[in-house]
Design brief:
Blueprint: H1 2-14, E1 28-33, E2 44-55, H2 68-82, E3 86-87, E4 94-103, E5 107-111, E6 118-122, E7 125-134, E8 140-149, H3 156-176
Parallel strand pairs: 2-3, 2-4
Antiparallel strand pairs: 1-8, 4-7, 5-6, 7-8
Length: 181
């Protein structure tokens, strides 16, 4: 179980890891919310889940001592606090969950610059989805997603910066729409 948790942590951070510089151009963030729900009316939340799926048959990444799951939770907690929604143990308005998927064997068609021919190339991909669930009804009232290319090797500092960017942008999209006040 400890090995799985360590691997899960590595996957979360490596989800958004770039090659050698901190670039966020490839990170695509989208959000959706229920137009009938006033998210400004929510003031408390509780964590209801986290899950991940990894496709890495060649074990290209090695586990590190980084607590990636904890860092993702921290970033989401921070963004909710910025919007006056605070974590509680009981009777929360919202439930928070996230899902991470990483595919180290993802393939993509690319143009070879030397021959100008189209070739199939390995381009590892990752995605992070964050859901806010109304605890009274059980319905998802907000969903944020980020997808990106990821590096074939893990660099903790770059991964942290890219995760911070993606999660901040998810919740910024909400505030820019005036959903949270």
């Amino acid at each position: 179980m400890q090995k799985f948790l360590t691997l899960f942590g590595v996957l979360v951070f490596s989800l958004l890891t770039a090659c050698s510089t901190v670039s966020t151009q490839d990170i695509k963030v989208e959000t959706e919310s229920d137009s009938k729900v006033n998210l400004a009316a929510y003031h408390s939340y509780v964590w209801i889940g986290a899950s991940s799926v990894l496709n890495d048959p060649e074990e290209k990444w090695q586990p590190t001592e980084v607590d990636l799951a904890g860092d993702i939770k921290y970033l989401i907690d921070r963004e909710l606090r910025k919007n006056n929604i605070f974590g509680v143990k009981d009777d929360a308005d919202l439930g928070v969950a996230y899902f991470l998927g990483v595919d180290m064997d993802a393939m993509q068609l690319k143009v070879n610059p030397e021959t100008e021919t189209i070739v199939l190339e390995n381009v590892p991909k990752g995605a992070l989805v964050v859901a806010l669930v109304d605890m009274q009804t059980g319905y998802v009232v907000w969903l944020g997603s980020a997808r990106a290319d990821i590096a074939k090797t893990f660099q903790a500092d770059i991964a942290r910066e890219r995760l911070d960017y993606a999660i901040s942008k998810m919740f910024k999209n909400l505030t820019s729409k005036g959903i949270f006040k």
